Amino acid sequence: MAEFKLTINNPKTGMSYKKDLTGGQADMLLSKDIGEKVSGDALGFAGYEFEITGGSDTAGFPMRHGIRGATRQKIYTYKGVGFSGRNRWGNTEKGLRVKTAVRGQKISAETVQVNMKIVKEGATDLFKSAEKAPEPSN
Fold first, then answer.
1. CA–CA separation, 130 and 17 (whole Å)
2. Does any domain span residue 17?
């Protein structure tokens, strides 16, 4: 049984919403790829539609689009996910390529966090409920 931490971003407002998924809802995300669209009804968000934009595994390695499967691989990269723009000594160089470890584009049991963005909004607002959460009293 899988467990995921969802981070849902609204591109229009720039706000994010976080939710923990367990059980059947989490199992529905297994074997999905980055870029796939997911119905919000299956995740408990009626009327919403999401697009998977990324994630990370148990050790914090980021998922990267274009890497087949769900395994962790070492690749040479010069830009994009997993590239900081600096060499191992902290210097920047023009034309620098760095060997870095990234996770494949498929969601698996080793995935901990899944990032999504809202493609189609539903009737209820996700962010209204997050704003009205009671504050702890001291």
1. 7
2. yes
Asked if residue 62 belongs to a domain, the reply is yes
pLDDT (0 to 100) of residue 129: 57
Residue 25: what are its φ and ψ, rounded to 5°? Answer: -65, -40
Q: In which element (H, E) is residue 130 found?
A: helix 126-131
Entry pTM: 0.82
One-letter amino acid of 21? L
| pLDDT tens-place string over residues 66-93 | 999 999 999 988 888 878 777 778 887 7
Report the domain count for the chain: 1
Asked if residue 13 is part of any domain, the answer here is yes
For tokens 């493609």, the residue is: 119
Residue 15 maps to a domain: yes
